């Protein structure tokens, strides 16, 4: 089976850097995948992307060495199965709030006896290889999003779930859940402490910890803190920021 670049990096003690796609375009997905990211995440939760568009984007990403991932719209086995069958090599699942919810998520990503994912010959095999079924459980990565007060309260139970590879912090929702405005770069003491707690508890239990960052500089700092999976902004924000900068330059503002 084709190897998962994320697992390779983690085995070497390195962090994985992912692009984050919200625009339903295989063309832009291919362009982003060629920029040196270790992996590329197709966001079907907040991105304007359905499963059909996601598969086309996975196909475009697969023309490069970047590993294709997806954020599922919810903790829904049917949605997760479709994304994995379409060629995702990992799932980021939003709003995982308890050990039981995390276990359900992980089981949706694993074939029996480790889980309840249904098997069929799909694009997953075309991308992964003829021995996909034998090795998918050890190759696919699972990342549970920690973004609520309930998840913080149940964090020890979540990180103890067998088969969970990583937890992933959504800073905006985490800040909202703690009573503050959304912020990709938290400044409130309580939110900063929550982020530090997630990193500490995940690391203690041998679970990798990831976070979404607004900029490359922010990503560099997070890697230095010990985060092992980093996303930088998203494609729409990068496109908008670059376009705005050129307009300002052209107008001399």
Q: How is this structure best described in words?
A:
The chain is α/β, with parallel strands linked by helices. The protein has one domain (5-251): Phosphoenolpyruvate-binding domains (TIM Barrel), CATH 3.20.20.60. 47% of the residues lie in helices and 16% in strands. The chain contains 13 helices and eight strands. The chain has helices at residues 5-11, 26-33, 51-61, 77-85, 99-108, 123-128, 132-139, 149-153, 155-159, 171-177, 189-204, 216-225, 235-251; strands at 16-21, 39-43, 67-71, 90-93, 141-146, 166-169, 208-213, 229-232. It has an eight-stranded parallel barrel with strand order 1-2-3-4-5-6-7-8, surrounded by eight helices. Strand 1, helix 2 and strand 2 form a beta-alpha-beta unit. Helix 2 (26-33) runs parallel beside helix 3. The longest helix has 17 residues, at 235-251. It is globular and about 60 Å long. The N and C termini lie far apart (53 Å). 44% of the residues are buried. The mean pLDDT is 97.
CATH class categorisation:
Alpha Beta
Can you list the strand order of the major beta sheet?
A: 1-2-3-4-5-6-7-8
User: What is the ordering of alpha helices and beta strands?
Assistant: HEHEHEHEHHHEHHEHHEHEH
Rg over CA atoms: 18 Å
Total E-strand runs = 8
Q: Quote the CATH topology.
A: TIM Barrel
The percent of residues in helical segments reads 40-55%
| CATH homology superfamily name | Phosphoenolpyruvate-binding domains
Low-confidence spans: none
């Amino acid at each position: 089976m084709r190897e998962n670049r994320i697992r390779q990096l983690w085995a070497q003690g390195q962090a994985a850097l992912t692009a984050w796609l919200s625009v339903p375009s295989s063309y832009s997905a291919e362009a982003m995948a060629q920029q040196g990211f270790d992996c590329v995440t197709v966001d079907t939760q907040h991105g304007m992307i359905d499963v059909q568009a996601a598969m086309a984007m996975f196909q475009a990403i697969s023309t490069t060495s970047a590993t294709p991932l997806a954020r599922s719209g919810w903790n829904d086995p049917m949605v997760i199965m479709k994304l994995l069958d379409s060629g995702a090599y990992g799932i980021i699942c939003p709003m995982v709030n308890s050990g039981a919810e995390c276990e359900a998520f992980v089981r949706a990503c694993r074939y029996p006896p480790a889980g309840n994912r249904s098997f069929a010959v799909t694009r997953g095999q075309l991308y992964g290889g003829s021995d996909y079924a034998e090795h998918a459980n050890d190759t696919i990565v699972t990342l549970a999003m920690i973004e609520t007060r309930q998840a913080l309260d149940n964090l020890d139970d979540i990180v103890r779930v067998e088969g969970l590879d990583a937890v992933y912090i959504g800073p905006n929702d985490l800040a909202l859940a703690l009573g503050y405005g959304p912020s990709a770069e938290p400044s409130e003491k309580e939110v900063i402490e929550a982020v530090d707690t997630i990193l500490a508890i995940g690391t203690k239990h041998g679970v990798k910890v990831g976070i979404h960052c607004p900029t490359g500089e922010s990503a560099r700092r997070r890697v230095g803190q010990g985060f092992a999976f980093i996303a930088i902004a998203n494609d729409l924000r990068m496109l908008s920021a670059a376009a705005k900068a050129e307009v300002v330059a052209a107008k001399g503002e």
